[in-house]
């Protein structure tokens, strides 16, 4: 029997490990199973190249709870260790066996899937255990070894009578960590961290019903057998080639990732690159609609099939964090406890690659089946619009597939839009005016007026649309977007024809005074306009610039400081050529004149959905009185 001190530079490093190195105690199981997986994959590699003269077989890992003995066992059938290797790998802290193995076999082992990087994973056991034992037998023909340590720098190492290849780690669970002796807790951790580990993991047993024989008698009793309960899928979809998967495979894997998600994903993007970095994964577009308040942290980051985190900020571009799926890369630099990212140039390269891959996939989906792409547009537009605003590389590619729908359900790319609208909607200054509505129902009357003129109106209703059209205008100097209710239609797209007012200047001044005597001047600015006599007498509009700046301020990242809190301001356009304008002027009784102005103003408010509460009640009452 050998005793000694673990070779560490701090007298007692275990409290430091427990307190500082790993901030989440539950990851001890992930680390120990990762070590067992490494040991198994090393054996597989050595048998493949003929260096290990043993049968690889079908090894598994096993996790067992001994609740009565307050012990947790993690057992592998991997490469095992000799006494000398235990001394080297376990007692020389932070000397990574995996690193040494990869260095030795770097030419042949680069695709072997070795997980370990730090050599510290084993010591995470002391976060939950008061004593740790290792019973291990190497694949080499050497005696087994038994290592014991109680969390102090002292350890013991002696021969063991283990006859089968592999390693068993026994954790004597500490009094403050007894939750890790509960079946449900271990099952929860295995499901979280080890659901897709590359070696089958056994946790207990389950019963299976044997198929009924064809010649079974009528009184045949169904037979069951007890089998290993394998809790993981060692060959998840993202580890396979896209050519080997069909649409049903992708959907099945989506539901494996998100068992409580009953809706089908719209489509998926399979990531598969091995240069200049290694990355695989599958991203899914779920139905998103126009809601910006969507829970993120739905994409899972793995490293060689070991779950690391669902906070993928930095790796996945921010606009794609509303998607779901898996990203797996051994090249993502993690901190020493494998629980967080380190700042690194490789991370930015990975993010750029994902952006490009998503853009290319969207373009191919658009080209292959435009009708299907259009049908899904409202469910994905918020992601794509956000991407155009936040990622220049995505913005550059987006022109090929980002759509601009009309209120009549036609879909145009930006170039198609310019081509289709230029004849009718270019103003007298040569600027193409794109009319749009934010709400088809609320702005219905304005939309209809525009359509009567032969104009097309887009339906742009996402919460960040003001930011996007501002960017599009900056990049397309002869293009401007105006909401269809921001002015009278003749002012939105100014042509050369001029309409003359029927009223003299004095009459116009009197009309303006009569209207201003009734309206709230803090909310409404009265404008007299000589319009077609058939146009509405009173029209309420909201100036494009003010409204847009206010919306941009409210959604952040644009607009003028403080504008998001400004009160709503409107223009009241009075058509001086309307019969009602003349009627108001010719009504000598001030009370009747006031009633006419109020009624016309309320009708205009009603068309903008601005008449509510007491004001709506008063309007209805006044209307009934007027038709008695």
Automatic annotation (TrEMBL):
One of the entry's Gene Ontology molecular-function terms is:
unfolded protein binding
Q: Which UniProt keywords are present, listed alphabetically?
A: ATP-binding, Chaperone, Coiled coil, Nucleotide-binding
Annotated ATP binding sites? 31, 35, 76, 81, 96-97, 167, 338
Q: Answer yes or no on keyword Coiled coil.
A: yes
Q: Using the record for this protein, list the coiled-coil segments as residue ranges, or answer none.
A: 407-434
Source taxon at top rank:
Bacteria
The family classification in the record reads: Belongs to the heat shock protein 90 family.
Record-given protein name: Molecular chaperone HtpG
Q: Which organism is it from?
A: Flavobacterium sufflavum
Its gene? htpG
